[in-house]
Structures are given as structure tokens and as C-alpha cells.
């Protein structure tokens, strides 16, 4: 008797919400569920049972990376099917809350974590991001919008929300490759500073600023937001950065924003959110976002109030992120020939799993994307309606 096969036949029986097929390492194919199979899982070799018991997310993630498992069909749909079946053993409560204390993210650790993800090469990111190198949720005014148009829409949407006026100052915490601060200076005549912990992003942004001739209006620094001293700003924006802060440092982030904002100043926070406190799973923490933490909506709102901020606008862009990730995934698959010249197959499979897992998570509602707009103290001069955001 093949004990591994008996184990996996039992595990697969109640894993997916949709009908599927599983082909085992000995060639046998077993159908699960009623109806036409939506995908097939091929086991090229068994994954150690102890690994599955102790950490199924990491075990299956590494199994795919190392070609112990192959997927025939849409990787995103497979993961959505996992998420939809809430009765499977994957959704049983685990002791992940203990991870909160581990992910402390000091300044040194934050730099290391950011560099782990973002300093893997601008040449790699340029293969599947749009021409602006924007690596965050886009904003689709129409389903027909290209990724480039949707990313420009997103930057414009954020800048309109901030109600920028000529001569004001803007700080972008986690500025990426500089698209937002450059657009702010060009379109609103504000003086903008972008800060990042990624060397690759810093040098590319500095190059863009020089090429645009914006040295008098825009600057970029390779620095942690906690190290920025002696300056305050009329507006502070952060796009896709607070997920790297860690639970233990969320309050410190808002305290720092308060210190960096002028009185009656305004801040916009664009970030991935959850509806309950939850550490990222161990596969993501090891291979994608070390030290990452997805904050709950109510957690962020509570911290804003505790730091003297007034929340004036909150918007969900969840399905916008699903579309963004689907664009990235298609671009990534379309650039495999070039990608495999600079990355090995294990990395390629890891990145494919990452992009598709994220798309599945947003589409399934496991996570969300919100933009929070809040003021330092009471700002009675703010527009009475949201017309300025859409005009």
C-alpha cells in the first residue's frame, strides 16, 4: 500500500470548492466533485506529510516552486477554489498570531525586507509592469482601460483627492519608481519629496527626475520615514507601503505622519487591508514579503483617531487590484522568454504563484484595497463634496 497516496487521496477529497482531477505520481487520475473538472493537479512526487501537517501553505507553495506539483488550467482559479471551500483543513484556525511578535521590523530589518523584494532588478520588473513602473493597484475607469492608462488614472485620482494647490509641499513615503511625485510636480506645481528603502527604485527615480528637468521641484532620498527629521509637509501620501511596516509599528507610523504633517495637513494612505487581524502566511513571509502584515480596516481607523487624525474619505478598490494583478500576470507570462534569461525556473514558478495568489485573494474577498483620506486636526476648509475627486 502506498501510504503517501492514501494520505493525499484523503487530503484532496475536501480541498477544492470546484470539481477537479488529480493525477498522482504513479499515473492514476482521480476525479473529485460533481460536474466537469475545472482544472487538474499533477503530483510529480509526494510532498512530505509532516510538511503538510505543520504548514500546508508553505508545503504546497514550495511544492509548486520545486515542480513536485504542476497545475493544468488557471493557477488563479485553483487558488480561488481553495479559498471558496471554507470547510477544508486549510481554513482551520492556526496559531499565526504568534507571528505578530516576530515581525518587529526595526529600521535595519525594514531596509533588508524592502531590498529583498524590490531590489531584484529593475530589468525584471520592467518586463511586466507598465511604462511608468508603477507597482501598486491601478484604477480602471473602464474595463477597456490599458494597464498604463489605469495606472495614470490611479495617480490622478490620488492627487485630486489630496486637493493639491500650487506651491504646497508633498511627501511620498515609499515612492516606488517616482511616478506620483513627478506627476504632482508637473500637474500641480507642488514641491515633492519621495523616500524609499530600495536602491534600485532610488537610482531609477533620480534618473527620471533629472531627465524631466525637475530637480528644483522634485527630490528623492534613500531613507526610512523614521529617519526623516527637520521637515514638515502640507500633504503626505503613502501607496502600498504600510503593509511592510509590521503590526508592532503601525502606531509609530501614524505618529510619524503626524509629526511630518503641517497643522490641518492632509494624508492619503493607499494599502492592502483585511477585515480581521491576520498575519500573512509563512510562504509569503519567506519568499515574497518578509515582515509583511496586512492591517485590518478597523485597526487603521482606530489608530488614526488615536493620533488625532480625522477620517474624511474611505474608498475600496478591491476589484481594481484583481484587474491589476491579472494584467501583471498576463504580462509576466508573455515575457517568460526574457524572464528566464535573468531568473531561474524556481523563481519564475514562485512569481507566477505570487501574482495569481494575490489576484485570487482580492477576487475572493479575502483581502481588500482601501484608500484612507484623513486630516491632522479639524480642517474646515476642505471641499464639502467629492466633486473635486472626479472633475
From TrEMBL:
Listed transmembrane segments: none
InterPro entries assigned: CFA/CMAS, CMAS, DUF7884, SAM-dependent_MTases_sf
Keywords, in A-Z order: Lipid metabolism, Methyltransferase, S-adenosyl-L-methionine, Transferase
The keyword Methyltransferase is annotated on this UniProt entry: yes
Keyword S-adenosyl-L-methionine: yes
Gene3D superfamilies: Vaccinia Virus protein VP39
Domain DUF7884: 7-94
CDD domains: AdoMet_MTases (cd02440)
Pfam families: CMAS, DUF7884
Similarity comment text for this entry: Belongs to the CFA/CMAS family.
PANTHER family given in the database record: CYCLOPROPANE-FATTY-ACYL-PHOSPHOLIPID SYNTHASE (PTHR43667)
Protein name, UniProt field: Cyclopropane-fatty-acyl-phospholipid synthase family protein
Organism: Desulfosporosinus nitroreducens
